[in-house]
Write a structure and sequence with these properties.
406 residues; hpI Integrase, Chain A; three-stranded antiparallel sheet
């Protein structure tokens, strides 16, 4: 079946467009039915779903041929029959990423997680050759992949990469795309707990002193200062401050209600007067968002976007790294996320594990926690006051606390 919008002639069995002009949007000629997706693949939206037809680098001709062969099936609401000769690495990755993209559209995973999945798919296609059959992969292939990864990343990152790689092939088996579970061999193993512990000891503790946090907050710009105070006051991380909206804050009451973007677990915290003041200043100085979807965002960069890139690094971490270097605190273990570690470590001295879990958005996993419907604000206030006293060496100004709140 040939798409009616495409004018082609047959030359030696190869599709050749009658009009070979290249359009500004990257299409090889006007009327080309596919568009260039941000992932570097040809795509088309069919029945409200994105369908991919190969990498742009592979040529538009093969993508067009694939589209023409599969379009009747997709438009009819069914998957086209798979290659009878087997599933290729590239096609498996296409299926996997498309499924994750649907989850992102439904709000079930974050932009950053989706970007990590894309990076894993690109890794597999590059390491194994996208046209290679999945059932042709053997233990030595995965051993070589692990060896390559271990040279480039640390043990913690290696754990995550191996987990995501295994997830791609597990997805294929569970969705009947490949006939049997993948056998990785003994060498495609995650680093042991001992290796992770030694690595953590070598990198240094992810902790700041009270003096360092005050120095960093005083030297930071208006938005970064508010972020730092949120991190040490309420245990927020990079992704948290990037996703934070004004609707999550009640500055008149001095409270934060903000489910963790990563897990959706409920989280509530009492904000210090200094944090409230910093948030008001940040809101007043906030640039106008360029995207209407970010109109409620608490923090906006000078470019008019949220403080997140969608990759494994965020603008928060990059900007904080510059601040660390400027203040001479650039050492192993020092990062924006280390402030969350510092909050948790200091807050532990308050002795109220349940209240700390509610502030950080943690679930203990113990069955008894399923019966806890709320944590009184008096307990959350006590944790906030304990960390405040550690940081400033002075009691926290008493706010009006509603006993029995969320």
């Amino acid at each position: 079946m040939t798409d009616k919008s495409v004018s082609t002639t047959s030359t030696g069995g190869k599709l050749t467009p009658a009009d070979t002009r290249t359009t500004p949007d990257g299409k090889p000629y006007p009327g080309f039915p596919l568009f260039v997706h941000q992932s570097g693949r040809w795509a088309k939206k069919i029945r409200q779903k994105l369908v991919y037809f190969g990498k742009v680098s592979g040529g538009w001709e093969s993508a067009l041929a694939k589209y023409q062969a599969e379009a009747p099936h997709w438009h009819a609401g069914r998957r086209p029959p798979e290659n009878p000769d087997g599933m290729t690495v590239s096609r498996l990755c296409d299926h996997f990423y498309a499924a994750k993209e649907q989850r992102r559209a439904a709000g079930e995973i974050t932009v950053r997680t989706l970007a990590e999945y894309l990076a894993t798919c690109e890794l597999l296609v590059s390491a194994f050759d996208g046209n290679r059959m999945v059932d042709d992969l053997a233990a030595n292939d995965f051993a070589k992949l692990r060896e390559q990864l271990a040279k480039r990343v640390g043990p913690v990152r290696l754990v995550n990469e191996i987990t995501r790689v295994r997830g791609v092939f597990r997805f294929g088996y569970e969705n009947n795309l490949i006939e049997k579970p993948m056998r990785y061999g003994t060498e495609f193993a995650r680093p042991s707990k001992k290796v992770l512990r030694l690595h953590r000891a070598e990198k240094g503790a992810k902790l700041f002193t009270a003096s360092e946090i005050k120095t960093l907050a005083d030297a930071a710009g208006v938005q970064m200062q508010a972020m730092i105070l949120l991190a040490i006051n309420a245990g927020l991380g990079n992704g948290d401050v990037s996703a934070l909206n004004h609707s999550h804050l009640d500055l008149s009451a001095g409270t934060l209600d903000f489910p963790r973007p990563k897990t959706g677990v409920a989280r509530r915290a009492i904000l210090w007067p200094a944090t409230v003041t910093a948030l008001k200043a940040a809101s007043k100085a906030r640039p106008t968002p360029t995207d209407a979807a970010d109109i409620d965002a608490a923090f906006i960069t000078k470019y008019g976007r949220r403080w997140a890139t969608g990759s494994q690094s965020t603008a928060v971490g990059l900007q904080f790294s510059k601040l660390l270097k400027a203040q001479g605190i650039d050492r192993d273990g020092a990062s924006f996320y280390a402030i969350r570690h510092t909050f948790r470590t200091i807050a532990d001295g308050s002795g109220d594990q349940r209240a700390i879990d509610r502030i950080m958005g943690h679930e203990s996993g113990h069955i008894s926690t399923a019966y806890i419907e709320r944590i009184d604000d008096t307990r959350l206030h006590a944790v906030a006051a304990h960390v405040h006293a550690w940081l400033y060496g002075a009691p926290m100004a008493l706010a009006k606390v509603k006993v029995g709140a969320k």
